[in-house]
Amino acid sequence: MIETLLCALVTILPDFLFRRYVQGKRIGKELTLFSMWYELRWGLTGCVMLTLTVITTLFYFHPSTKLVASYFRTVTILPQVGGRVAEVYVVNNQEVLVGDPILRLEGLSQKAAVHSARAGIAQVEASRKLTDTDLAKAEAGIAQANAALEQAQEDLERNQILRDEGSSAVRLTEIQRLENLVEERIAALDAAKAQKVAVQQQIDVLIPAQMDSAQAQMELAESELSKTVISAGVDGRIEQFALQVGDYVSPVLRPAGILVPYSTGHNRFQAGFNQMAAQVIKPGMIGELGCLTKPFTVIPMVVVEVQDVIASGQLRPSDQLRDLQNGPQPGTITVFMEPLYEGVAEMLPPGSNCIANVYTSNHDRLEHDENLSSGQRIFLHVVDTIGVVHAAGLRLRLLLMPVQTLVLSGH
Question: What is the rounded distance in angstroms from the CA atom of residue 178 to the CA atom of residue 123?
C-alpha cells in the first residue's frame, strides 16, 4: 500500500493535474468513475509498472521474513540406569544449579554390589594378616631347620675326628647315617627358605594385586550406585516434571522431565529468508526485529552468520533412489542474528516467534568507490532510500499485530 501511494504521487497525480489544468477536464464531468480508466491511462499504467519495480527492488535488496525464532536447547532428565524412584528433591519450574540432585532411585542391586565389594576388600585384608602369620611361621621353620642342620653337622664332624684318630667307638655306618642326615637337613632348610620366599611373594605381589582388584570392584560398585542419583548437569529450570516416589524411570522407556539451560536461546535468533536473498544477505548487515512476546517494540539486529547450506538439500542414504519431484519444498536461507545493542533483547523469552527485516546499505560504497557512474549512484541511492518504506511497513505490522492476533484471528 505504501509503495502504491508513493508511486501514485509521481504518476497518477501529475497525469490528473495535466488533465485538469491543461486540458480543462473536470471531476464529475469529463473525469468520472467510468472514464478515469481511459483518461488517466498513462498515469495508472505508469503507477502499476513503477509500483511493481519498487516492490521487487525493495524485497530483493531489503529482505523480509516471518520465519524468525530464538531456538533453545533442552536437556532430557534421564537416568543412566533404570529403577524406581526412592526420593525426589525438586519440583516443577524449580531453578537448579550444576550438581544439584534432582531425584534418587532405589538402587538395591547397586547397594548390594557395594557391600559385596567391601566384603572383598575385607577378605583381602584378612588374607594379608594370614600371610604375615605364614611369614613368621616360615621364618621360624628356617630357624628350626638351620638349628637341626648345625646339630647334624656337629655330630658328623665329631664322628669324623674320632674316626681319623683311630677310635674304635666310631662305626662307618654311623658316619654314613650322619652324612645322609646333614643332606636331609640341608634340603629341609632349602624348603623352609623356599616357603618364606613364597609367602613373601604373596605379600609383595599377590595380595596387592588382589587388593587392587577389590578396590576396582569397589569403585565400580560405587560408580554404579552414584548413577542412582540424577543431578543437574547445567544451570537451568526444571520443566514438565511430575515425578512421584514409586514411579519407574528408564533411560530408554521413560524420561523424568526436561531441564532448560539458562545459557541457550537468549540474544540469538534464527531467521529463514527466501532463497532469492542468498546473494544479498551478508554478515554485518543491519536489521530490525519485532516479536509477538513484546509487541510495539522494534529491536535493532545485526547479521552475524549465514548458513552456507540449505536444509532442503539434505540427503540421507536409504534403499531407494531419491526422486526430485518427491522432494521437499524449496528451503530457506538460515541467517543468525544478534541484538545490535547489549541488553535490548533480554526481555524476549527463548522460543519467541518474530518478524524481521534486513537492510542493504551502500553508504560505504558511495563514499569510497570513485568508479561508480552517475546512473549507478542514483540507483544505489534509491535502493538505500526505499529501505525506509520497508522499515515503515515493519512498524505498521507491529502496530496491527495485537489486533490481528487477538481480534481478527478469532483466538
Answer: 46
